[in-house]
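Hi P.,

Sorry for the delay on this. The queue was packed all week, but I finally got your sequence through. Input first:
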Amino acid sequence: MTIEKYVPAQLSMAAVVPQVLDNQWVPKDLLGKMIKGKKALKDVKIEREKYVLKEWRRALVYGEQVVVNRAFMFNNEIIVDDYDDEENREHFKNLLNTKVIVPYLLYEDNPGEKPNFNLNESLWKAWMDVVDDTQMACVRLNWGDQSGDMKRLSTIYHNYIQTLNTRADHLAGYLGIKDDLIPTFKKRLKKIVSYAVNLADKRMITRNDMYREFVCADDTNPAEGWYANKAFAAQIKQIADLKYNVNLPDALGRYALTPEDSPPRVALGDLDDVIRTQAITDENVDEILQALRGMAFSKITGGMYLRSLSALNLGDVIKVRATDEWEEYRIAFHNLLNQPLKFPHYSAVLSAKFAALNERITRFRHESEQAKWEPWVKLLISVGAKAIELAINPADPSQKLLSTIGTGILSTGVTPFLMRLTISSKVLTDADLDLSLDFMRGTIGNGRDTWNEILGQLRSVPGFEKLKEAESTSMDATYSPAEEVNVYGY
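Then the structure:
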């Protein structure tokens, strides 16, 4: 075994850290069923693993590089299944050797260092069979003493939880909480804040603390996932999970890959805490508005596509990544990240290259189940706690939707600004081939004025006169309307 010791700066520019590998992650719809049916994680294992496999494949196919917590390599069954026989093991080694998969090490000096917690010996042996003759790269925040880094991550999590009540309106908008329940939701968040403040005299709050007090049934092990009918348990779990899982990619300076049917990164409302980019000027805002007026996308050929990336095996993944279509998609991805103010051109190129890649993937697995795929292109413009989402049908430019997300009053001072491109189906039964990318992050000088200017112009310019305006509380990858929730989160 030989390893290259990466520091965060050596990771690919578009490296991702997938949330779906978290053993506590549950999609929103399934979480509601668990709470209503009083089911634990073991009771929904098969259904949950279908989601995990699909999102794991999405990371390996659409991600330039995938950073994976080393512990998941031998305790996440979906990953272990990927090297459970000789052929698959060689494919998995290939992905490690080519640095498509990069293990993240916490305190270990190498990926073969045995952990000090209880583990399945057979799974550990299988992992060692992979490690023994593999030349991989591993990343740590610091190859010296990481105690300071770990303390900083714990502090970031604690400080966020301790200020949840200041983000109540923003969170309510993204979590689909109805207006008449927002006052009750705010009271619940205040209880969480009070709990965190009291705990701070002893130690930092952890996700398990949140689970025990506000999410799980009393006197149960949080790892077993007995999620209770406590007030807003589902939403609180989603908040606790998302913040927990974005801590590492934020520290690495790379992307959190949030799964379908889960709140997006921007839902946390903490971009003012984590954004370290240059200011977006008034001239930049004018450029963005001018660009939005003239946006157009090439028609994406509708038709039958592979229904889900979960149909791909690791051999397929390697073949896909070796195609011209994948390389052109990767270049288009980088171009948008490198030149975000030219998003009208580069987002159109990326959507076309993404569609071509999905066509090629479908040809690899022509015998697998297929479904219609007629994607829409969506642009999210987030200003502080509010966001505008534009959805455009490339097959019919007259079909455009405008929706607003979030409530509350925006600051007249420096405010976080974000733009995201999403290419996804509008219909749940369509093929599940989606892409989402936060391509512009920064701050603007006056959030309230910028918001009013952008929203006012989008409502009035000729190109958007026919937009159907609606209040939106969800940004599912499938663009489905938000489900109504009650005080218990389902």
